[in-house]
Amino acid sequence: MLFKLPDFDTLYDALLRRDARFDGQAYVGVASTGIFCRLTCPARKPLRSNCRFYATPQECFDAGFRPCKRCHPVKPAAEADPVIGALMAALDAEPDHRWSEEDVVAMGFDSSTVRRTFRRQYGMTFLQMARARRLRDSSRALAKGHKVIDAQLNAGFDSPSAFRTAFAAMLGMAPSEMKSDSRLKADFFETPLGPMIALADDKALRMLEFPERKGLPEQLRKIHKTEGALGFGRTAIHDQTEDQLCQFFAGELDGFTVPLASDYGTAFQQQIWAALRAIPAGETRSYGELAADIGRPTATRAVANANAQNQIALIIPCHRVIGADGTLTGYAGGLWRKQKLIEIERQFR
Fold this sequence. Notes:
CATH superfamily of the domain at 179-349: Winged helix-like DNA-binding domain superfamily/Winged helix DNA-binding domain
Protein name: Methylated-DNA--protein-cysteine methyltransferase
Mean pLDDT: 82
Oligomer: single chain
InterPro entries: Ada-like_dom_sf, Ada_DNA_repair_Zn-bd, Bifunct_regulatory_prot_Ada, Homeodomain-like_sf, HTH_AraC, MethylDNA_cys_MeTrfase_AS, MethylDNA_cys_MeTrfase_DNA-bd, MethylDNA_cys_MeTrfase_DNAb
Enzyme class: transferase
Strand content: 5-15%
Number of strands: 10
Shape: globular
CATH topology of the domain at 179-349: Arc Repressor Mutant, subunit A
Radius of gyration: 22 Å
Catalytic activity: a 4-O-methyl-thymidine in DNA + L-cysteinyl-[protein] = a thymidine in DNA + S-methyl-L-cysteinyl-[protein]; a 6-O-methyl-2'-deoxyguanosine in DNA + L-cysteinyl-[protein] = S-methyl-L-cysteinyl-[protein] + a 2'-deoxyguanosine in DNA
Low-confidence stretches: none
CATH architecture of the domain at 179-349: Orthogonal Bundle
Pfam families: Ada_Zn_binding, DNA_binding_1, HTH_18
Number of helices: 15
């Protein structure tokens, strides 16, 4: 389905409560000002009689409204936040810097506000994000044959044990467990939604995830246990995946042809993942609709669970499943990413 707006009362109530579940799915045009906003906009709430609700920014433009300068409705919510924008720019400018709360305060920000803002949008604090980026860089150094001690120091860890602990927390195993001659290779890609880690052999892509996904370490440990040692490096599958991701984010590709591993998951899970790939880019389904699509209308909960078990993000598009009421439901990569992916795919309609 193309997203169908809920009734006026539901949307106006969401506007009054600044309900983030509709972010990227619904916008309000205010007749008295000629401005359109997110439902989460911090501005004073308009009178009920002045509100007009739309599904996309383009519909707001077509109706003659201009975007709000406070909530920036034509940008993803994360990018629109000035705190996030400033700190992410600083992180990009100094990726090797060992950031501290004192640095955040020196930039004129309240540290508790920054923690709350980043947790809400990314599921981690700014300091955790900065450390994770250094750890990813150390992973690349290890892949190039650098010594563990060099990767440790470059990542800003004075203690080898602290480095091993942090590395294991991110990837589920210590640096010494990553084997250079392993069949399965892991590498990171940079995307407009942040880095992704891809796991592949010479034949197929086996995993594509955002590194901060909460269950990623356990997921990698399971793969390590069942399929053998993992190592850093690249295969032709990595190159193909990265190339197609670049085309997708550039608006040039609405479907992926990367070969995917077919020997994991139950038969039911594989049926759901195939149904997800059959949803056209730019459209969404509720869990109930997805269950009906496979002829199992009472299996909504099982469908939701299979959706959550998907380990190949974007390519198996679990982000196309939303709540029955049109809200953005849970997404392991963060709701802000789900919002952005849905917005990107609207151009493919």
